Amino acid sequence: MAWKCEATRIASPGKSSPFNPLHLNRCAAGPAMASLACSLSAPCTTSALRSTFNGDSLVDNAASSHQAPQLSKGALRIEAKESRIGKAPITVPKGVTINLDGQSLTVKGPLGELARTYPREVKLTTGSDGLITVERAVESRKARQMHGLFRTLTDNMVVGVSQGFTKRLQLIGVGYRAAVEKDELTLNLGFSHQVRMKIPEFITVKVEENTRLIVSGKDKCAVGDFSAAVRKWRPPEPYKGKGIKYSDEVIRRKEGKVGKKK
């Protein structure tokens, strides 16, 4: 594949001058862009650009006018960095089995089974040492965005079927109460009616002292979504702190209005 570099012709107002790659060093980009200038009439080969981006020393070869000049070290370096999260391998604990079929992964453990299908931008590899590695299948912007994301989602699957996830909520307010009846959560939150929410499958909700909720399950996304849906009915207000809040949530309080002194 041949790459063709294009550059804007630089000329004085009212005058025309032939294109000269060295004129680019007058721009704000400086010598770095000047060294990248290529002839407008000839394409730059991939190998020439690769040597340029690798930071090799600048070669001044006047005889080869169609070859892209190479950059001096430190002038410009373009490289695809590995994701700090994505490159970390995932350890599979005892009691957890994994089954990889193409782009589909199934994880089984003491708490159940989870499955996920991965996009073509990432690929999974499993080793005999009990490690799962998530890598980029292609080098693109979308693949770099997905690398760390799907590594985290895979780790959540392994942790979910082995340990599970838990969210704790607290009801603060006069008359605020909660109760679980079969697969339904009933909330008294000061409305003229009770709030009834169906508990999703694979999620367990426990009530302690009528005002504390414990939401647990193997799917971290499902646990978080249901907890957020419960909290949304009465978000904590900043004046008296009434509402539904997470147990570790800190409410930023505000001072109420003070009447005029007589």
From TrEMBL:
One of its GO terms (cellular component) is ribosome. GO terms for molecular function: rRNA binding; structural constituent of ribosome. Belongs to the universal ribosomal protein uL6 family. PANTHER family: 60S/50S RIBOSOMAL PROTEIN L6/L9, LARGE RIBOSOMAL SUBUNIT PROTEIN UL6M. This is Large ribosomal subunit protein uL6c. Pfam families: Ribosomal_L6. HAMAP family: Ribosomal_uL6_B. The keyword Oxidoreductase does not apply. GO terms for biological process: translation. It comes from Ceratodon purpureus.
